[in-house]
Amino acid sequence: MTDAEGGTHTFSDVEEGVSLMELGRRNGVAGIMGDCGGGCACATCHVYVDERWWDKVGAPDDVEFAMLDMVADVMKDTSRLGCQVRMSPQLDGLAVTVAPASG
Ligand code: FES
Question: Does the keyword Ribonucleoprotein apply (predicted)?
Fold first, then answer.
């Protein structure tokens, strides 16, 4: 995970089901706030998924997309909310970059 200041973080022993937002917060990743606690209601967990991983991670659903639209100024085609992406063995090695704050 690349943080908002360009630092890189690698996590091992990631338990299945933990979200990217939780991982980021637990490990003090700059730029991951998670203000709403994972409720898909704040977009302070916004990340850009590495394009090589996009097919595995998948696109946001309508609710998540609506929230991402609130930060449209910094949204990209590979945007996801970190609280909505849960780790699984299939995502071992996943690379994401924390998006800059909106506005
Ligand atoms: Fe609020 Fe993800 S933590 S939208």
Answer: no
For the Cβ of 81 lying below 6 angstroms from any atom of ligand 1, the answer is yes
The two beta strands, 79-81 and 96-98, are: unpaired
Beta carbons of 29 and 44 less than 8 angstroms apart: no
Kindly state if the Cβ of 21 falls inside 6 Å of ligand 1.
yes
Does residue 34 line the site of ligand 1, with CB under 6 A? yes
Q: Which two tokens stand for residue 15?
A: 């338990």
Residue type, 68: L
pLDDT tens profile 39-58 = 999 999 999 999 999 999 99
CATH number given to 20-98: 3.10.20.30
CA 40 to ligand 1 centroid distance, Å? 5
Q: What is the DSSP letter of 58?
A: -
Domain ranges in the chain? Answer: 20-98
Q: Structure tokens of 21?
A: 């937002």
Please report the ipTM that was assigned to this predicted complex.
0.99
